[in-house]
Amino acid sequence: MTSSFFPPQRTLMGPGPSDVSPRVLGALARPTIGHLDPLFVQLMDEIKELLQYAFQTENPLTLPVSAPGSAGMEACFVNLLSPGDKVIVCQNGVFGGRMQENVERCGATAVMVQDDWGQAVSVDRVAQAFADHPDAAVLAFVHAETSTGVRSDARALCALAREHNALSIVDAVTSLGGIELKVDEWGADAVYSGTQKCLSCVPGISPVTFSPAAVDRIQNREHKVQSWFLDMQLVMGYWGGSSKRAYHHTAPVNDLYALHESLLMLREEGLTAAFARHRHNHRALVAGLEAMGLSMAVAEPHRLPQLNAVNIPEGVDDAGVRGALLRDFNLEIGAGLGALAGKTWRIGLMGFSSSEQNVLACLTALEAVLSAQGADISRGAAQAAAGAVFSGR
Ligand SMILES: Cc1ncc(COP(=O)(O)O)c(C=O)c1O
Questions:
Q1: Protein residue closest via CA to atom 16 of ligand 1
Q2: Of ligand 1's atoms, which has the minimum distance to the CA of residue 93?
């Protein structure tokens, strides 16, 4: 007999979704009201304002797309690109490859700038691509590459796009709320994110923001946007500036309560404090992992504090370790993706999951599971090393 589903209480320390704050789960369970109810329209306005804070922007076209991060990605590409456009796409992991797919499906041409997985996007190589392709209309790159745990220099890349009269499309799915992201100051034109990473919210929504230059491009398109659902001109009829809102689609009302609550939590904590918390917990985790004898896969200057790629020690059974962590400790960590499958683990410290308690629990569990596998690690050192970071010693 099929019955109600009661998931276990896991600790989510993979590449996302991350743990959802109980405050956010509480908001999700509040009574559903109509998506055109005047009170809901007020909530929508607050969400837009809170998103502007999170993105550090005054862009009026800032809203949550009613679908996961991949839809935010697609929204940026289909609205800004037209058939025949040339786009410089940076790839240093899985998600740059998805950008290429989006460009090609829009009938545009992708000029690929490839960097090794685990390396940041090379600003010099992008500058060379602009020199070789001065007609490029758009530069697209991933700020925080979740597949490898690497941060690229979004400020420098956006500046380069501006210098060459190109618009920038920035994937901030894993960066929003976890590391600095200054949309207006950096001059980013179309930025998309997700709710399931550093916002401590449920998966399934994609915050996006478009600069005035991007809006200008959208309003002066010759071709209709190929996607009806993601056409920003139509979506604006529902999310637009005036208080008169027209039906476009039925908004995920309760998910938006959740998003509102999570953004409120971010504003209460403050971006600076949230970034410092992510950095601090990351430093403690790395200290613990290294004391155990493990090594990080990414060079220090390019590491994401919210996504820690760890080299899997020689002879260790990757799936066996992840399975034991889940089964015996209710702890989820991520496998390597693509070229890094079987080579790295990805330990997330995102949003509500980024806590001192989770760092210590993860180190304890990993040490126990690796020891049981007979891995050559130092036992008992990790807690002390992480503890030293926490106590500032
Ligand atoms: C960098 C990046 N871009 C895009 C996505 C796609 O987001 P979603 O899985 O919510 O569709 C992800 C998801 O992990 C991601 O990490």
A1: 146
A2: 1
DSSP β-ladder status, 144-145 and 61-65 = unpaired
Rg (CA), the chain: 21
- Grouping H, G, I as helix, E, B as strand and the rest as coil, residue 199 is coil
Task: Report DSSP letters for 239-268, one per residue.
Answer: HSSSS----SS---HHHHHHHHHHHHHHHH
Ligand 1 center to 161 CA (angstroms): 23
346 is in an annotated binding site: yes
CATH 3.40.640.10 fits 22-268, yes or no: yes
Place of tokens 């090393």: 385
Query: Which one, of 83, 159, 148, lies nearest residue 116 by Cα?
Result: 148
Do residues 200 and 262 make contact, with C-beta atoms less than 8 angstroms apart? yes
The CATH H-level superfamily of 271-391 is Aspartate Aminotransferase, domain 1 (3.90.1150.10)
Q: Which of 101, 173, 179, 306 to mutate to test the pocket of ligand 1 (most atoms within 8 A of CB)?
A: 173
Cβ–Cβ < 8 Å for 340, 6: no
Residue 382 CA to ligand 1 center (angstroms) comes to 31
- Alpha carbons within 13 A on the beta-carbon side of 62: 23
Q: How far apart are CA 70 and CA 194, in angstroms?
A: 8
**Domain parsing of the chain, residue ranges:** 22-268, 271-391
Encoded amino acid at 92, one letter: N
CB atoms within 10 A of CB 155: 17
The residue whose CA has the least distance to atom 9 of ligand 1 is 69
What pLDDT score was predicted for residue 242? 65
Strand-pair partners of 191:
170, 209
For ligand 1, is residue 364 a contact (CB within 6 Å)? no
Tokens of 278: 């992510």
Largest CA distance in the chain: 65
The alpha carbon of 178 and the centre of ligand 1 are apart by a number of angstroms equal to 15
Q: Is the peptide bond before 8 cis (omega within 30 degrees of 0)?
A: no
Structure tokens at 265: 């939590």
Say if ligand 1 is within 6 A of residue 194 CB. yes
List per-block mean pLDDT (blocks of 10 residues) for the chain, which spans 393 residues.
96 98 98 95 96 98 98 98 98 97 98 97 98 98 98 98 98 98 98 98 98 97 95 91 81 98 98 98 98 97 98 95 98 93 97 98 98 94 97 85
Q: Does pTM top 0.90 for this prediction? A: yes
